[in-house]
C-alpha cells in the first residue's frame, strides 16, 4: 500500500458520488477492483485524507508557556491534534488530522512564531542596555505572553466531530511513536504588567483569518 494507490481509489470513490447513476456505478466498481488489487481495507481508505505535518520552526523541548499556548490554540482553531516531535535533539510542533488542516496549522504556526521572535527581538532592543540579560529575558517573556494572548484571542475554535476524533485515534494508534500533546511547559517568573501590555498592544495588530469549512484561503499578516 502506498499513497499513489490510495489516491487512485479515492478518485474513483469521488466519481462514485456522481449524480449520473451509470457513471457512479462504474466508478464504484473500479474502486472495489482497485481495493482488491492493492489489498486495501476500508480503514486504509479512511486514512487517505489523514496525515501529520511537522512545523519548520524549532522550539525548546520543554517550551515556554506562551509557545505552548500558541501551539494549543492553533490546533484548536484548525481542528487538529497538537504533538511535539524531537529529532536530533531539536523539537518542533506537529499537527495531526485531516491533511489540509494539519498543513495549514503548521504553516500558521511557522508564520506566527517567526513574527513573535522578531517582535521579541525588537522589544529587547528597547530595554535599557544596562539591564542584566536575565532581567531582559523575563521582561521579554512577559511581553511575549501579552503578544500571544492578543493573537490567539481572535481565533475561533473548531470543534472536532466525534467521527473525526475516532479517525484521528485510529490513525494515531497505527504508529505507536506518536506522542500526543506538547511537553510540559515552563514559565520564567518576572516582567511587569507594562511589558505584558506592550506585547498585547502589538499582538493585537496581527490578523489571522482561518478557513471556513476548508473553503477559504488562510491569510496571515500584520495589519496596518
Could you report the average pLDDT, rounded to the nearest whole number? 80
Q: Biggest sheet: strands, sense, closure? A: 3 strands, antiparallel
The radius of gyration computed from the alpha-carbon positions, rounded to a whole number of angstroms, is 22 Å
Q: Structural class of the secondary elements?
A: alpha+beta
Beta strands, count: 5
Q: Helix-strand pattern, N to C?
A: HHHEHEEHHHHEE
The proportion of strand residues reads: 5-15%
Strand order of the largest sheet: 1-3-2
Low-confidence runs: 212-224
Question: Which helices and strands appear, and what pairs or packs with what?
Answer:
Layout: H1 3-15, H2 21-38, H3 42-46, E1 50-54, H4 65-78, E2 81-87, E3 90-98, H5 99-126, H6 133-152, H7 162-173, H8 193-203, E4 206-209, E5 219-222
Antiparallel strand pairs: 1-3, 2-3, 4-5
Helix pairs in contact: 1-2, 4-5, 4-6, 5-6, 6-8
Give a quick rundown of the structure.
With 224 residues, the protein is α+β, with helices and mostly antiparallel strands. It is 54% helix and 13% strand. The strands form 2 sheets. The chain has a 3-stranded antiparallel beta sheet, sandwiched between helices. A two-stranded antiparallel sheet has the order 4-5.
